[in-house]
Amino acid sequence: MPDGVPPYYVPRYHLELGGTAIPATLQASIASIRHDTGLEGSDRVELTVVNENLRWLDHPLFNLDRSLTLSFGYMPDRAMQVFDGIIVSKTAEFPAAGAPMITVAAQDRKQRAGEGTKSRWFGIPIPTVGNFPLPDALVAVIASAENGLMPMMDPVGAGISLLLSTADILGALGDPDVAQQAIRKQIGESDLDMLERLAVENGWELVIDHDGPFAGFALHFMSPLDRLSTEVELAYGRTLIEFTPHHSKVGLILAVTVTVWVAPIKASFAFTIGWDWDRMAFTVDVRPALMPARGGPTAYKIDEPVTLSTAPRRVISELIPRLNKRLTGAGRAIGDPHIRAGAVIKLLGLGSEFGGLYRVTSATHTIDSAGYLTRFEARKEIWFGSIPAPEQGAVPIRLSGPVNV
Prior knowledge:
The protein is 19% helix and 41% strand. The protein is α+β, with helices and mostly antiparallel strands.
């Protein structure tokens, strides 16, 4: 076994239905297990069960709304819990030839927040003064708790959101119209849709924590700035089986411009927030709206009314997601339960351009006749630019022998 490669043995999993470990007879009937985790949508588990003699056809273990907990790992170590959710569907197959099958699907509890729609607003009516907006962090807590979820926020993400909400409140003190615009409104959308909108405008990612004291119920409003430490190292030719990176400037947005009306001085200004890849820093340009704004093929203009307090959120929601799409990739690795949505992975042996730190945006874990494998998609975020390339493992490949260029 090559140096530096951990000793992988026989893959193992631990599955519980309704809080109880499955019986050995059911474990022997499971043909495959698939676990999907992502920064978008709900995490999911699919079990494919051989239904020999229809023994599992009407079994209560697979009743809808029954809890399902899954752990992955290797013998002889203890498996790591990767999912805690509920069964949402089951499908039976009765083929003309071959064994009957049952497919059981479970999703995380975030999906409950996506059921139904609501119309409401989140403000505090103050007599003789007007309505004031609730901070986004408090709105997130209210909507999460209503769906039986425990909201968890990273310190940096909570701090940035508080600063943005403070700007809303200060703007509302001077202008009732500004206050009304800053109030969060949920019009004909689900709680999950609204929470996802809040996340984009505050620089959060929505992730269900499947381990820990509130496993399956903790809705993590994750700030990428709080998560820059490596959780998994993958080396090409060893633990990293394959990787296909994509580095492109096509459609890339480097600056976003908004026009803001400043009521006290009755004037409009164009605010342009951009990103300088050479200095790895944000740039700010402010000028009267009548003057040409800083533009070009990589600039994007928001054509909608904004205020001084709402402008930062709109810029964040447009600029950062686009910047983080500059360098992405998809790969396949030896199964590792630590490769999950939101995790930071370090890719070694891929050179200075494509090696280094990536954020996992989605991962698919499978255990079947081929063993335990993990496929993943990832992005190289702008925040990683603050970490020196050698510390990331993004170093040039050393060639031995004569090389003709």
